[in-house]
Every structure is written in structure tokens, then in C-alpha cells.
Amino acid sequence: MSPTGFAGALRPRWRAGARLALLALCALVCAWLGLDPLAQAVAQASGGAAQAQKQPDKMFVEADQLVYDKDKNTVSAVGNARIYYQGRTLQADRVIYDRNTQRLYAEGHAKMINKDGNVIYGDRFDMTKDFREGFVESLRSTTTQKTYFSAPHAEITQGAISVYNKGTYTACAACADNPLKPPLWRVRAKRIIHNNDEHMIYYTDAWLEFLGLPIAYVPVFSSPDPTVKRKSGILMPETISSSELGFGVEVPVFWAMAPNYDLTWTPTYFVNEGFYNDFEWRHRLANGNYFIRANGIYETNPSLFPASPYGSGNNRFRGSISSQGEFQLDKYWKYGWNLTALTDKWYFWDYPFANPLGSSYYYSEAVSDAYLTGQGDNSYFDLRGFHFEGLDPRDIQETQPNVLVLDYNRLFDLDPAKTHGIGGDVQADFNLTSLSEQLASYSPVAGPGFNPQTQLFDPAVGLYEYCQNYRPGTNAGDCLLRGIGGEQTRTTADVSWQRKFVDPIGGAWTPFAFARLNGEWLDLNTSNSFTATNPNDAASYTFFNSNQTNFVGQASGVQGYVMPGIGLEYRYPILVNTKLGSLVVEPIGQIIARPNNLIGSNSLVNMDSQSLVFDESNLFAWNKYSGYDQFETGTRANYGGQATFNLNNGGYVNVIAGQSRQVAGPNGFDQPSAVNNGLASGLQTTASDYVGAVTVAPIPWLDFTAKGLFNTQNFEPDRLDIASDFNLGAWTGGVDFANYQAQPILGYYVPREGLSLNSRYQLTPHYFLQGSVTFDMSRQYYPPSLTGFTNAGPWAIASESLGAGYTDDCTSLLVNYSSVYEDIGTGTLVHNQIFMVQLQLRSLGDAKYQQTTYANGAQPIDR
């Protein structure tokens, strides 16, 4: 019916005769109220809930009985009464409609379910007939987001505004065992107003309580209700403090300009340096999203920061701009970018909160790139441009390259019926790389100040004088050429074919063939030079581009080569079933034949193949070099095997091991080069070092992995990595250990060794402890007289952290302490300590306090 009257639909609980009598009574009531009695009787018989969904603008009633009081001019629905109107449902033991006041009164187990799913409980409801105005006594409200209001007296106005007098608000559910126990936290206020149209909650004279105890008072504040994901307004202010900036306060302002874009402005005032501004624009479109962030400051006292080369000097205007975005052109193609530009490389060090790259206080570089990527079922295309900006204090920006890279990959399946029985898979890879740098980049192997006894450089010798004596690339000289000064463009095409055959006894034979075509254009800049000042002794040193020709042999020209090859791989899996599980043993052999030398010519420039790690993952690779600048020659055999034991209880053991041997032709890995990457790789001898890895997971809660490179002379490990993780339910953790022997020819003068432990213990379902420690075991090889390290033993701590926390459905609290020893690039080992407390109250907001202190004179940053 329309809201001008009241009628009902009974539950079918009585005999047919009683139901007809009640329908007649209902019809009389409807007639008395001036309504259409036939329509209401039909609604009554067919069910109020179903009819209410079909006719939301009419009011329907279900009850055990309807009682009409002529003297009081009221109609009552008694016993399991339900009233449906415009998506709302009012339930109670008894609902009374007063014709004189045109109000509804609900009593006894009363509750109202709104159309948004929120539920209001109360001892008594006093509502207008359209449910838009009213009062509720002893209110308790539960929202669909699992937040809760309560008040001894509440008022509902305009159908959208709820006023809770002496109300409370929390996102913590009541304790199931003791509902009267206070929640972990709640806001208690003289008045709470919830505006559902604005989706805002307003508090007056509010206290924040924890476990019923008030801890913070705010006279007036507001917050979005839990349905709001983003809302314009002033965000939580924060304080910042550092020795150079002084004390500062930031007040973020968020402007939700439209559902798909917004702007955040964060003005900050520092006592020592003035106003700092940060703007972030975010925009989401149908096919992607992007953001632009710009921040900066005009410093009032720039001299507070160290002068060059220790800092920014007297630069007044300092800032950065960054942007990131990605858009989908269609289901195959997308493009995007990640850009960062800075006024100086010290900016993120002095203003770490401005850095979009991460939360660490130490940064090595800012990488900007733009890309276009296409992904098909059997093909891949990627075009990218890179710009690198060095942020380490020792970086020389002129040695950072600009790079353009194009990669294309395509896989073809050959049908033997259409290829004269050849069949198999054909893979084509194409790469084009073009780069340019102003200055050549050198790093030391040995040279002035190198002490053969300690295998260290004397700190008294400048950082920039290690590479003063260059030798030709045909010898292992004092320096390595990490990057050229000039321009290089290289195109490489790799084409390969392979097909697997299985013989009658189960052996798998895989013949393969490949060819690499390489073309290169080189134009070195031999005239540029750069003079740098050593921060340690203030002496100046000059780097010359002309010395790079000692490594690559020529300054310019066009070159190219072809390298074909063929090979055969054989695997024979053997299956053995035991009572404990199944064992698969698979011996593997591989032979690859290539010409002894490149067919053509190639420069010795190596820009993308400098990393060479020989392990079980590339034991059977056709070319063990990374990148495209280097390629194997001659004939090589790779052999080994793997075994997997699958246990019946779900655990398993896997072992893989093998060796590589240069069978014929020169071994390219034993030749000095611009970076000497093959000389300490384990492949430099005719019979390589052994590689192996074992993974043991005997039970679901424990796994152990060890992998290494072992010397052929005494089987001692040249490289060893061990990792283990366990999960005992409440207790989880892991151990990582690494030991790499010294590689002086690559610039690693002492062994690199470290141990890392981490663990977390769940004390209860809500409370936990966590911690980690990393030991820099390499410091035992550095005499304190040369390094200045006071903790130079085998158990020297590089980093440690200890934390405790609490988490449940409404609250998250983390208290954590961390300590890190880091070299900030000026020859000083800095002890960086961070104490952090982070509290998150679901639906209300979060707060964070972080204090960072540096030893050895570095600047502290406190947030």
C-alpha cells in the first residue's frame, strides 16, 4: 500500500478457515483506513517480502495477528511482525500504527534492516510511517562493513542522518564470551552524527578509548564512514625532524576531484629551511592509470648541507618530479613509463620522504624508462628506453648511459608432415641495443695503494686513483672497463631449432641447431675527460676516455660476425618405486659444436654480458654468457644428471649435479677481457668446476636447499649458498648462508660471506614476535687498521631487527627496532637505527611514529 495507510500479509500458519477470516478482518481495516482492501488482501496471502520486492513503494506487513483498537484508533501487528517498505524491514514482537499521529512504534526484540544492509537494534522504535524520521531507545547498530554504533538514545532524520547522543563507534566486534566487555578501542562522544548522504561521521567532545580507558581527547573531528574509499579533506598531520631541516610539520590535503582522479598537496614548514611543497596527481582511466608527483623547496639556509662533493653545497632550489603510468592498448599491447628527474643527486638523501622509489634511506640510482610491450600466444615484443641517474656520492653522472633496447621473440611449431619430416620447434630472437655515454667507467683490479698482503686498498689512497695505469685488454690489467664513453649500436639475431625423439627403451634424444648473427656500430669518444675530487683526501684525479681503447682495441667502425652451432642432448629417465615413494633418476649428456672462432669480427666491448654465474641453472645452456655481447666458441660437452625422490607423505628430495668441459677449440672463459668475467667463473679451466644443488623437503613444514660451485682439485666450494625455511604453525623462520671465495681479478679482494636468520612466533592468535639478524662475516678478513671497523670479527652484525605486534579484525599495532651498518659513500660506515611504532584502527585511520638516528656524524631523519 502507499505510505498513507497500513495493511498486512499474514504468514500461512493457520487453517484455511482462519486465514479467510483474517483476510476479511484485514479487508475491513483497509476499508477503515481508506485503502483498496482487495489489493491488500492479495498481498497478505502471497507473502509480504515477495510483494515488497515487486512493489517497493507500498507497505506490506507480516504478523501472527492484526489487532484493531477503535477507541485508540490504532492497528497493531502482534507476534513476529515484519513491515516492508522501500527496501527497509522493521521487525519486532509488536508494531503499533497510530492513525492519530501517523507514527509506527516497534517494541520487543526490535530491529530495522536498511536497504544498504545495515542493521539497527533497539528496545523501542518511534518512527514516522515512511521510516524517514524517528527515535530509537538503547540503539545498537551494525553495518555491512562490520562497524558498530551504540547510544542510549538516537534520532533518525531525513532518512539519511543518524544522531547518536552519548554515542560510541568502533570497528571491533563484541566479545563472544562476554558481550559487556569493552572493545579493544572505541570512540565515545557527546554526539555522533552519521550522514549517509555525505558518507561522513562527525564527532563532538570525543574520547578515544582503549579497553574502556580514555587515552586521547578531541573536541571536534570527522572521518569518512567505512563505505568511503576516498574523500576530500585534511589528512593526518605528521612531524619531521632532522639536524639540517630542523623541526617541521606537514599537513596533507586530499582533494577527490572526481571518482577517477584526485590531487594530494602536502605543504610542510621546516624551521631551518622554510616551506616545502609536495603535489601528487593520480588519474585512472578505462584502459590504465598514471600519477605525477612533484616536490621541492627553496632553501633559506642551503649552507647547512655539506658542500660538494659531500653534499648539495649552496644550491637553493632543490626538488624532483616523477611519474609512472601504464595503459592497455588491447589484450596484446600495453605501454607505460617510470620517470624520475632530480635537481641534484643528494636530494633524496637530504629529503628521503620525497623519494617515490622506496622507504630506504640509501639509494644507488634512479632509473627512468618508457616501454611498449606486446604479448601474443607464441611471440613477445618489448621496446624500452632507459635513463640512469647515479645517486651514490661516488657516482659520476657522465658515466651513466642512455639506452634503447628492442627485444622480439617468436616461437614456431613445425608440422613434420609439412616440413619433410623435420618438425620440432623453431625459436627466433632479435635484439637491438643502442647506448651512449659521455665518459668511460673504470673500476679497479689492482693498482696504486693495493696491498698484496692484506688484499686491500690503503684508505689513504684516493677513491679515484685506483685506475691510473691501464693495460691493453689482452692482459689482466689493473682496471676493468665497466662502461664505454661514446656510442654503440648492436643488433643480434638468434635462430634455433630443436626436436625431441624418444627411443624404444625410453631415452630422450634432442638434436638442435642454432645460429647467431651480430652486427655492431661503434663510435668511441676519446677526447672527453673528467676531474674528480676524492672526499677522503681532497686530491683531484682525472679520468681520460682515450684509455678505453686499451680495452677494446679500436675507437670506431662497423663490424659483424656469424656463429653457427649444432648439438645433441640425451636424457634417460629411470623410474624406481619403493615403499617410501617413487624415485626418478635421469642422467643427462650434451655436446655442442661451434667454430673455434667467430666468423667475422667483433669489438671487445662488453656492456650486457658482465654478469656470469655458473650454476646448475645454466649447466645445460647452449651459451652460458648473459646478454648478447659475448658468445661461446669451440666445442663443449655438458654432462651430469638429476634425481627426484617423491615421498608418499608429500615430501620430496631433488638433486642435480654436473660439469662442463671444453672439448675442442679455445676456451673463451680463460681469456682476459674488458671485464674479466670468465676468469673466475669456474669455467676458465678445460674441465670446469663441479656445480650441484640439492633440495630436501622431507616433511611439509621443512625444506632445505644447498647449491654450490666446487673446485676440481680438492672439491672445496668456491661458491656456496644454503637456505632453509620451516613452518611449525605458530613458529616460522628461515636461515640463509652464503660464502663466495675471493675473486681479485674481478675486484673482490677478500671472501664474501654472510649469514641471515629470521623468525616469527605467533604467541596467540593476535600477538606475535618477530626478529632478524644478518652477520657480515666478511669483516673478519678486513684488518681494523685499514677499515676502521670496530666489529670486524666473523660475527659482526650488519643488520638486526626486533619487533612485536598485535592484529585482529579492527586493529593492527607494530613496534619495531632495526639497526643497519651501511657505507654512505664517503668512506664512513654509518650506524643507522630506526625505532618505529605504527597503529592502524580500521575505518578510523592510522598513526605512525618513526625516529631514525645516524652515528658517525650523518644526519638523522625523524618522522
N- and C-termini, Cα separation: 61 Å
So how many helices? 6
Can you tell me the overall shape?
Answer: globular
Per DSSP, what share of the residues sits in E-state strands of 2 or more residues? over 45%
Task: Kindly summarize this structure in a few lines.
With 863 residues, the chain is mainly β.
Overview of this structure, please?
Helix 1 (16-32) packs antiparallel against helix 2. This protein starts with 15 loop residues before the first helix and ends with a strand. By secondary structure, the protein is mostly beta strands. The chain is globular. It contains six helices and 51 strands. The strands form five sheets. It has a 33-stranded antiparallel sheet that branches. Strands 1, 2, 3, 4, 5, 6, 7, 8, 9, 10, 11 and 12 form a twelve-stranded antiparallel sheet that branches. A two-stranded antiparallel sheet has the order 26-29.
Please tag this protein with its features.
863 residues; twelve-stranded antiparallel sheet; mainly beta; 5% helix; 33-stranded antiparallel sheet
